[in-house]
Amino acid sequence: MTYTTSNEATSNVAPALLQSWQNLDVDQQLALFYFIYKEIGRSVTPAAPGASAASPEIAEGIFNQIKDLSQEEQLQLQRDLILQKNTPITREYGSLSNTTKLLLWYRLAQGMDSGEIIPMPDNYKLSGEAQQLLSQICALEFQQQITFFRDFVAPMGSSSTED
Ligand code: 45D
Description:
Blueprint: H1 14-23, H2 26-40, H3 56-67, H4 71-82, H5 88-94, H6 98-114, H7 128-138, H8 142-153
This protein binds beta,beta-carotene-4,4'-dione (45D).
Beta,beta-carotene-4,4'-dione binds next to helix 2, helix 4, helix 6 and helix 8.
């Protein structure tokens, strides 16, 4: 199989991995993302190089809107982002830089741990396929992972200007 990618910064394995991730159903995509956060989240520091490309205040503003939703709505919003639904918040998301999008997802994962965002159900198990993807993603180098996650979160949300 051959792959083409418009992003030279991605590794050779990443396009296939990304495709497999995006082919999971939406809940498995979310669950896998959270398990990734659990694996690599602790190596991310706020002072990471390139942090200046993110807009923390903007990410925080959207995070606060999501925080104020009910837990059911918080989950639906995250599904809507992945499914590229058109809502006020997914449109705001669509206008962010890719790094700020990633920062928002990072905040959401932190919010899950602090009780501000709907948590993972207890004992939630990844499907075998998602589990395999998790190992492959964890095996990427840190910089590759960052590029890879940016590619994952970039197409989410809505870029529509219409209600
Ligand atoms: O009930 O240079 C299920 C920056 C099942 C700064 C569910 C950075 C049903 C600049 C659907 C599973 C910080 C951007 C429930 C660098 C059910 C910079 C819910 C690095 C409740 C380097 C599942 C940033 C849910 C990085 C809600 C590395 C799942 C960021 C939600 C990495 C999952 C971010 C979430 C990652 C996952 C974020 C929110 C890995 C987020 C993952």
